[in-house]
Design brief:
Shape: globular
Largest sheet: none
Distance between the termini: 17 Å
Order of helices and strands: HHHHH
Number of helices: 5
Number of domains: 1
Helix content: 55-70%
Oligomer: single chain
Radius of gyration: 12 Å
Length: 80
Amino acid sequence: MDDPRDVVVIIYKILDAIPTNEEVLQNELKQYLETLWNQAPEIRRSKYCWAPLLDILQRHIPDIDEDWKHRVLHIFNGTE
């Protein structure tokens, strides 16, 4: 079973929560995901992989004002 706090697992969950019209955010997440293919599992659970994800989300979701944004927040925080 995949580690639930593996950044790759979380990115896939976030991608499922993002509406299809948010193409720029989806594309940036997919591009970041492609850079993680050769990272060790322990690295994918560390700040070195989580910090860039946080940066992407903060740039594209400055305000939590829609249901999907709340869901992304809960996924990121591990409360979903």
